[in-house]
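Lab channel / #folding
Pinned by the channel admin:
"Please post every new chain as: sequence first, then the structure tokens as a reply. Keep commentary short and put observations after the output so the thread stays searchable."

First post following the new format, from NK:
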Amino acid sequence: MRGFAYAFQREFDKAIADYNAAIRHNPANGAAYYNRALANNALGNADQANTDADFSRARELGFED
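Reply from TO:
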């Protein structure tokens, strides 16, 4: 939830760091993949962050927006 709060405050780098930690802790956390993709898009990091892969992984894990 802290990542979401950072994203809400437009602190996307901090949000991404929290989503990365959440994914390391629980690789089945579809919401973390989805939200990391959104944060990377907001920063314009779509190519670097492999955003499509994050959205795809979120769907594989059953997370729907």
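NK: Helices lie at 2-8, 12-25, 30-43, 46-49, 51-60.
TO: also worth noting, The domain at 2-60 is CATH 1.25.40.10 (Serine Threonine Protein Phosphatase 5, Tetratricopeptide repeat).
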